[in-house]
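Entry for the shared binder. Reason: the reviewer on the internal report wants the predicted structure included alongside the sequence.
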Amino acid sequence: MTDYVLIKRGLYWRPNASGYTGLKTEAGRYSEKESAERTRADTEDGVSRMSWDQAEIFSPSCPYDAKFQYYRDSCSQLQEALDTIDKGSPKRVEYPNTYKGGFEAGLDWAGSIARDALRTHKAGANV
């Protein structure tokens, strides 16, 4: 059975139709029946639906700051996981705990953390 996200003005509906969000992780999952009823009832308001699997992480109108915070939180979670892996490694890598820059630079920053951690982990495994 397929779940759906509901979209209005480029934002996903939250669970129980309790507001809007730009992030799929905060969006409500609606059944086929419920999503069909809500899109039919709100056609003049421009409510549409998309299957959960096809929905992007960010809705079409997701605000920049929500995207940035999502990636920042993801980097923090990645860092915690990498710290756990690094505990057994002979060499620890220190990463900056703050980031100051634009959105695209943030993606590069997150990628550099992952690449450095992978190199460190592989180096520890080869010792």
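Summary line for the report: Residues 7 and 30 are 11 Å apart (CA to CA).
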